[in-house]
Specification:
Blueprint lengths: L3 H26 L28 H26 L5 H24 L6
Helix pairs in contact: 2-3
Length: about 120
């Protein structure tokens, strides 16, 4: 029953950390600093054309997510190749399975038309 105080202490510390962080960010964000131009979406001195809060299409985000997914895949394969000097057939087949699953996902996205820019 002595271990319950550790749980209560960590719970109290976690909750107080959250509220303290939110409170401090609220205090800091409600101060005005600098000129009026600091709050604008640009600081180059050039006026913007049209609405500055334009929306991006869904295809932009899909391309970004695919880039992140395949970028992480490349990093994973590179680190795997550095660690495994002598490729054992079981390890090599597991990497081929990993790449194959990712290629199936890419083929599915391609077939659904996700990769066409409109």
């Amino acid at each position: 029953m002595e271990g319950i105080w550790y749980v209560v202490g960590f719970g109290f510390a976690g909750v107080s950390f959250v509220f303290l962080t939110i409170g401090l960010s609220w205090l800091i964000s409600h101060r005005t600093r600098g000129s009026r131009g600091k709050g604008l979406p640009y600081e180059s001195g050039i006026d913007t054309y049209g609405d500055t809060h334009g929306r991006f299409g869904v295809s932009y985000y899909l391309y970004a997510l695919l880039f992140v997914a395949f970028d992480i895949e490349v990093i994973f394969i590179f680190l795997w190749a550095l660690v495994i000097r002598d490729p054992i057939p079981g390890l090599l087949s597991s990497m081929f399975l990993f790449v194959g699953i990712l290629l199936l996902g890419l083929a599915y996205a391609w077939r659904k038309g996700v990769l066409t820019w409109r």
